[in-house]
């Protein structure tokens, strides 16, 4: 095969995980605001009504929890200005494209270290998976959490470049990083340390002055947000949680103890990180470089390791109060995978000669396996969260028995674009079933209802079924419909992962048999509710009420105080 043909072939292989990733994103992404996403609608109203440029800047840089999310707000306003309404899928696209921009950076690192394009193949398979599903499908968090990592990495890379123009560009990108998320502040001292180590006192002074200016601007008018729950974990537990954070990429490995696997891999990656950092510091102190770019690679990787380890300390300190399992959540996995990718550089770059291709081929094989594990493991999370979003929108949209949205002609009501949702076709069925107990064309509802337990707790309705076996994806599944004299509520039932490896990998049975739900009464108005099951199977819908009823005597959520 010619050199051009080989390059084309390798490029097509690199694009495979890219197409799979965005295909999976497109299948489950939906234009429904999640949690903090609602704040972007308020921002657009505030920005549109601002009379002066000072007021507009204030709206963009206004504090959001402990963060400044100016980049997210910029793209929100841009989307609104271009399309006439805000679409959260568009924000997700921007965030996921920012995530994609890490791959060209790794290509530059490998290419300038005299590695062939083939050496890049494992990176997209490791980097682009459903392991990041929470940020993938969350408009605001997608730009904030992916953007701060990508911009931070490019800032570090540009900062240690010898060319003055690239250093000047690093200042601009660093400013964007700080304006993307609070975690971006870490980039400022990290780059200062790298410039100090490199011996460039002039640049270090310039960077330090600009960094102090950025920090002053960040904390000007800053108000300390509500604190997270205090952690009662011991020092040993915190250390264990820290290692779990660093090794959280391993959660998808098909073993019984997923948290234990994360801790184990975290210890290994921590030791690898310390070893790499120590080697880099030794080489820099001894100036043991034959090629200029080797030093740039070392400085970049040292800065990246510092970013990962420091972020881990902040996350563990701030989030341990929510429980140790929360430290391996999808939102934070990007740092664990990033550490894995840094380790890959120090495996593949030193290899020379005929050993290179066999080593890379073996790593590609492992990367593909990891990619498959991640999609199989986290697909259930993506499915459950889509159902939670769609049912939440149903409940805030239809607040009356007539199943008609409240007419709102205000500017705020027109900010977010309207997206057809699958439950729109439920509306006539719900009205019919409420009158005659049954509606739709789905079968076996009687047996399904009979095999489902409804446990009426003091503050919640607990639903459990162990026999339901459908493997339909996206919006198919079981939903709980509650009907009172005043209104309807719809809540999703959730599926669990299939732990049978044979069924999972050979038959593609992602879901374990059954479903479950815990429906808090705090999310409902007072009243007597009839209980029904909605079964969505592809295009078929069936609704069945039986004799079960629940009483909600009090309502009202314990809302977390926010500054937005």
Structural class: alpha+beta
How many helices? 20
Indicate the radius of gyration in whole angstroms.
26 Å
Q: Any idea how many domains?
A: 3
Biggest sheet architecture: 5 strands, antiparallel
* Arithmetic mean of pLDDT: 93
**Helix/strand order:** HHHEEHHHHHHHHHHHHHHHEHEEEEHEEE
Distance from first to last alpha carbon: 59 Å
Which percent band covers the strand fraction? Answer: 5-15%
Report the principal-axis shape. globular
Q: Count all strands and give the number.
A: 10
Q: What portion of residues is helical?
A: 55-70%
Low-confidence stretches: none
Which strands sit side by side, in order, in the main sheet?
A: 3-10-9-6-7
Question: How would you sum up this structure, described in words?
Answer:
- By secondary structure, the chain is α+β, with helices and mostly antiparallel strands.
- It folds into three domains: 1-224, no CATH class; 227-350, no CATH class; 385-408 and 417-552, Immunoglobulins (Immunoglobulin-like, Sandwich), CATH 2.60.40.
- It contains 20 helices and ten strands.
- A five-stranded antiparallel sheet has the order 3-10-9-6-7.
- A hairpin with a 2-residue loop joins strand 9 (527-537) and strand 10.
- Helix 5 (88-100) packs parallel to helix 9 (139-159) and helix 14 runs antiparallel to helix 15.
């Amino acid at each position: 095969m010619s050199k051009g043909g080989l390059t084309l072939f390798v490029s097509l292989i690199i694009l495979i995980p890219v197409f799979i990733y965005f295909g999976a994103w497109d299948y489950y992404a939906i234009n429904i605001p999640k949690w903090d996403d609602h704040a972007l609608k308020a921002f657009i109203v505030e920005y549109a009504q601002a009379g002066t440029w000072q007021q507009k800047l204030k709206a963009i840089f206004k504090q959001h929890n402990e963060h400044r999310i100016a980049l997210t707000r910029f793209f929100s306003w841009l989307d609104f200005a271009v399309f006439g309404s805000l679409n959260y899928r568009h924000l997700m696209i921007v965030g996921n494209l920012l995530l994609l921009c890490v791959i060209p950076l790794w290509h530059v690192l490998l290419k300038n270290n005299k590695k062939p394009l083939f050496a890049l193949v494992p990176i997209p398979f490791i980097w682009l998976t459903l392991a990041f599903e929470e940020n993938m499908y969350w408009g605001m968090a997608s730009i904030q959490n992916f953007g701060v990592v990508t911009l931070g990495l490019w800032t570090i890379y540009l900062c240690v470049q010898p060319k003055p123009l690239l250093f000047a560009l690093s200042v601009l990108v660093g400013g964007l990083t700080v304006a993307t998320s609070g975690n971006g502040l870490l980039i400022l001292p990290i780059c200062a340390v790298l410039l100090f180590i490199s011996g460039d006192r002039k640049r270090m002074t310039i960077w330090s002055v600009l960094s102090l200016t950025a920090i002053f601007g960040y904390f000007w008018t800053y108000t300390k947000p509500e604190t997270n729950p205090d952690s009662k974990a011991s020092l040993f537990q915190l250390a264990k949680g820290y290692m779990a954070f660093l090794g959280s990429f391993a959660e998808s490995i098909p073993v019984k103890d997923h948290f234990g696997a994360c801790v184990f891999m975290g210890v290994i990656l921590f030791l690898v990180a310390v070893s790499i950092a120590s080697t880099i510091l030794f080489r820099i102190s001894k100036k043991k470089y034959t090629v200029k770019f080797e030093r740039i690679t070392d400085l970049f990787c040292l800065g990246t390791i510092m970013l990962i380890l420091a972020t881990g300390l902040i996350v563990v300190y701030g989030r341990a109060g929510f429980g140790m399992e929360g430290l391996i959540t999808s939102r934070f996995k990007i740092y664990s995978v990033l550490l894995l990718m840094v380790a890959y550089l120090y495996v593949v770059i030193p290899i020379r000669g005929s050993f290179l291709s066999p080593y890379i081929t073996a790593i590609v094989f492992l990367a593909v396996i990891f990619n498959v594990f991640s999609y199989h493991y986290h697909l259930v999370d993506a499915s459950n969260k889509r159902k939670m979003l769609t049912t939440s929108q149903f409940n805030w949209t239809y607040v009356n028995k007539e199943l008609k949205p409240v007419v709102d002609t205000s500017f705020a009501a027109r900010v977010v674009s309207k997206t057809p949702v699958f439950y729109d076709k439920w509306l006539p069925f719900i009205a019919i079933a409420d009158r005659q107990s049954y509606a739709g064309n789905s079968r076996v509802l009687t047996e399904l209802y009979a095999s489902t337990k409804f446990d009426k707790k003091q503050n919640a309705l607990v639903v459990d079924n162990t026999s339901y076996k459908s493997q339909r994806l996206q919006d198919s599944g079981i939903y709980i419909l509650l009907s009172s004299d005043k209104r309807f509520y719809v809540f999703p039932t959730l599926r669990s992962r299939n732990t049978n490896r044979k069924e999972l990998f050979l038959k593609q049975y992602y879901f374990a048999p059954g479903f479950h739900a815990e429906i808090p009464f705090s999310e409902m108005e007072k009243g007597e509710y009839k209980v029904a099951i909605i079964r969505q199977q592809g295009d078929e819908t069936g609704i069945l009420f039986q004799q079960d009823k629940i009483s909600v005597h009090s309502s009202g959520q314990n809302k977390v105080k926010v500054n937005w």
